[in-house]
């Protein structure tokens, strides 16, 4: 089972990458997933230009026209579960994260996800805004999440005992959901 951790901010000065590294290290040590991959959206530079057909109307991933969509599709298809590391921007989440989600559909479908958020109230408003978007692409958000405040993120990483406990606590159920949904994905996803 593979866990993909998506860093949802591409700003020059951002905390999300440090948080993603912290979570990735903890997930690797915890061991619920065989493989843990950190995906930084800043490295992908996904353009806003979308495919002609909406993602949910395609019958096959072979129908992608743009090379960046094909590469993004292949990368996201590798995951069995996701962690979205999202900052809270103006009571929401980042535009690059929305774009990264909207480019695809079936690649996300029937897979569980949790969130690690950062913001004034632990990023809760950004996390709450993200949930309906995840549901719309058939991601199954689980109730276990990690909310961090600004004072818990330091220059050299995250210092949060509560955050570490929540992170360790969400990994076993996330892996259980990923395993339980595997037959659903195989049955319902187009080839």
Number of strands: 8
Sheet with most strands:
6 strands, parallel
Under the CATH scheme, which class?
Alpha Beta
Q: What's the order of the H and E elements?
A: EHEHHEHEHEEEEH
Principal-axis shape: globular
Number of domains: 1
Write down the CATH topology: Rossmann fold
Strand content: 15-25%
Counting helices, strands and paired strands, the structural category is alpha/beta
Q: Number of helix segments?
A: 6
Mean pLDDT: 91
Round the Cα radius of gyration to an integer and report it.
Answer: 16 Å
- List low-pLDDT spans: none
The CATH superfamily title:
Flavodoxin domain
| N-C termini distance | 20 Å
CATH architecture: 3-Layer(aba) Sandwich
Keywords:
191 residues; alpha/beta; Rossmann fold; six-stranded parallel beta sheet; two-stranded antiparallel sheet; 6 helices; 8 strands; globular
